[in-house]
Amino acid sequence: MTHFGDHQVSIYAAGMLAGQIPAWTTDLASLERHAAEVLPPEALGYIVPSAGGGLTARANVAAFEQWRIVPRMLRDHATRDLSTEVLGTPMAAPLLLGPVGVQTLAHPDGELATARAAAALGLTYVHSTQAGHSIEQAAAANGDGQRWFQLYWPTHDELCESFLARARAAGYTTLVLTLDTTLLGWRPRDLDRGYLPFLANEGIANYTSDPVFNALLDKPAEEDPAGAGLAFAGVFPNPGLSWEQLPWLRERWDGPIVLKGLQHVDDARRAVDAGVQGVVVSNHGGRQVDGAVASLDVLPGIAEAVGDELTVLFDSGVRSGPDVLKALALGADAVLLGRPYLYGLALGGQEGVEHVLRCLLAELDLTMGNAGCSTPADLVPELLVRSPR
Ligand SMILES: Cc1cc2nc3c(=O)[nH]c(=O)nc-3n(C[C@H](O)[C@H](O)[C@H](O)COP(=O)(O)O)c2cc1C
Ligand SMILES: O=C(O)C(=O)c1ccccc1
């Protein structure tokens, strides 16, 4: 049982008694501003912005504001327990570190720092296909921790099989198949800078550490980074994917499969028929379809349609403990965090990631307690009312 609130409060209480203030802000909403002060322009320009004019990214955050918590009183919450189990994976809290590519842009330790932070807090690390460190390196950093692998399904079957075999061998238990990025979205901030990390061989470590990928190259990646970048571009976009291909993947991965990026109830119903175990209701943090519906707005409908048959995860716009509470109350079994932990990574590597997670979990724990809730099972729709925006 983990009392994140007590833990965090005691850390800061001890610090305050010693006349210290925390190294970084505990106000997660302002983390982006702090990270912006330390991140190089390319990194900042890649991580922070979203597709188009940012309508969906803003809507994701704003959607949480229309839901308000109705705290309940005199419900003993002296003993609180945030722990849960999702698809057989034990979690200290219903929060995963979502798959984010190219974390080496934020900090040289990149995914290694994130995988270590996740393990230290008993949370699940999700390794991106676009990571700056390889499947095996991140697994070693994650150690005894819990880890899932996110797949961008390459157009090259043998490469896909190789990724799956490596992930399985390195102890990743669940496969997260991302469906919303078969083409990179229209991202003016990257386009205007003429910058894409992959062409500079940032974020293709899983590929350049793969024998099948390397066999596609004329020269080793170290000798010809541009060639490796182009070879990546030859296998990455996969707009031809369709539901008909899912059985192929199902046959090649014997653990749970989660489809990430669903926004429509009918797609969630098809996921049930496809024999997968879960979905992530997500619009990729607004980085793909600008103008897409806010992710939280479609969560209740999807949870109602498939919540009894599939594990329902959620991301896009989670910025605080109360946000996690709201997503769970609206039907999510757990949420994935995106940009906020990247800001922590930028500020302080592993410690920075841990700081963000501790703050978020402490705020969740304290908010739950003050609302009269002791466990994730207490987070039900009746805890919320809808207020005008
Ligand atoms: C810099 C960056 C890189 C990302 N890379 C991936 C990725 O490789 N695979 C993936 O499935 N999602 C990726 N995502 C999307 C996240 O998994 C997640 O859906 C999104 O960040 C959630 O929104 P939030 O940032 O508002 O929390 C990325 C997001 C960011 C910000
Ligand atoms: O930038 C992203 O959001 C992302 O998911 C991605 C997709 C392909 C290559 C690199 C990153």
UniProtKB/TrEMBL annotation:
<feature type="domain" description="FMN hydroxy acid dehydrogenase">
    <location>
        <begin position="20"/>
        <end position="389"/>
    </location>
</feature>
<dbReference type="InterPro" id="IPR000262">
    <property type="entry name" value="FMN-dep_DH"/>
</dbReference>
<feature type="binding site">
    <location>
        <position position="128"/>
    </location>
    <ligand>
        <name>FMN</name>
    </ligand>
</feature>
<dbReference type="InterPro" id="IPR012133">
    <property type="entry name" value="Alpha-hydoxy_acid_DH_FMN"/>
</dbReference>
<feature type="binding site">
    <location>
        <position position="260"/>
    </location>
    <ligand>
        <name>glyoxylate</name>
    </ligand>
</feature>
<protein>
    <submittedName>
        <fullName>L-lactate dehydrogenase (Cytochrome)</fullName>
        <ecNumber>1.1.2.3</ecNumber>
    </submittedName>
</protein>
<comment type="similarity">
    <text>Belongs to the FMN-dependent alpha-hydroxy acid dehydrogenase family.</text>
</comment>
<keyword id="KW-0285">Flavoprotein</keyword>
<feature type="binding site">
    <location>
        <position position="152"/>
    </location>
    <ligand>
        <name>glyoxylate</name>
    </ligand>
</feature>
<dbReference type="Pfam" id="PF01070">
    <property type="entry name" value="FMN_dh"/>
</dbReference>
<feature type="binding site">
    <location>
        <position position="150"/>
    </location>
    <ligand>
        <name>FMN</name>
    </ligand>
</feature>
<feature type="binding site">
    <location>
        <begin position="338"/>
        <end position="339"/>
    </location>
    <ligand>
        <name>FMN</name>
    </ligand>
</feature>
<feature type="active site" description="Proton acceptor">
    <location>
        <position position="284"/>
    </location>
</feature>
<dbReference type="InterPro" id="IPR008259">
    <property type="entry name" value="FMN_hydac_DH_AS"/>
</dbReference>
<feature type="binding site">
    <location>
        <begin position="315"/>
        <end position="319"/>
    </location>
    <ligand>
        <name>FMN</name>
    </ligand>
</feature>
<feature type="binding site">
    <location>
        <position position="287"/>
    </location>
    <ligand>
        <name>glyoxylate</name>
    </ligand>
</feature>
<keyword id="KW-0288">FMN</keyword>
<keyword id="KW-0560">Oxidoreductase</keyword>
<dbReference type="InterPro" id="IPR037396">
    <property type="entry name" value="FMN_HAD"/>
</dbReference>
<feature type="binding site">
    <location>
        <position position="46"/>
    </location>
    <ligand>
        <name>glyoxylate</name>
    </ligand>
</feature>
<dbReference type="InterPro" id="IPR013785">
    <property type="entry name" value="Aldolase_TIM"/>
</dbReference>
<dbReference type="GO" id="GO:0010181">
    <property type="term" value="F:FMN binding"/>
</dbReference>
<feature type="binding site">
    <location>
        <position position="178"/>
    </location>
    <ligand>
        <name>FMN</name>
    </ligand>
</feature>
<feature type="binding site">
    <location>
        <position position="282"/>
    </location>
    <ligand>
        <name>FMN</name>
    </ligand>
</feature>
<dbReference type="GO" id="GO:0004460">
    <property type="term" value="F:L-lactate dehydrogenase (cytochrome) activity"/>
</dbReference>
<feature type="binding site">
    <location>
        <position position="187"/>
    </location>
    <ligand>
        <name>glyoxylate</name>
    </ligand>
</feature>
<feature type="binding site">
    <location>
        <begin position="99"/>
        <end position="101"/>
    </location>
    <ligand>
        <name>FMN</name>
    </ligand>
</feature>
<feature type="binding site">
    <location>
        <position position="284"/>
    </location>
    <ligand>
        <name>glyoxylate</name>
    </ligand>
</feature>
